[in-house]
Write a structure and sequence with these properties.
Elements (H helix, E strand, L loop, with lengths): L1 E9 L7 E11 L2 E11 L5 H14 L9 E7 L10 H9 L4 E2 L2 H13 L3 H15 L3
Parallel strand pairs: 1-4, 4-5
Antiparallel strand pairs: 1-2, 2-3
Amino acid sequence: MFSIIIEEATGISNSQKEQLCLTVRYYYDGEVCENFLIIRPLPSEKSDEITKHIMDAIKEVGIDFNKAKLIGQEYRGKNAASGNNGGIQKAIKDLHPMAFYIHPSAHSFNSAICNATTVQLVTVVMMQINKISQFTW
């Protein structure tokens, strides 16, 4: 099982096309891992062409959809990509029904929590909250 993170980046010069950056997130050996896979120019601004571009890129790096299930998708920088009624998110969900859309803020919140737990006071407070939630009469 894996999820994809699609980021849009513009080249250094104004003459360069926008780039599609593909990262995969997966669970392996007890840890959640993220690996950058590919960056390539976007073929156009049309969602159907971008969807094909994403799916081709995933296959190109050797991910077999018969063995690994696509269960999540996240987009950064492409507002049209995350529309419920159209766009890339819906097109990929139509191809892979278990590929639920994950808003980028969920990833940001998770990163913030992970970083906050490196502060000892935050860790102590979280442990106390956990103890309170487990308290029984």
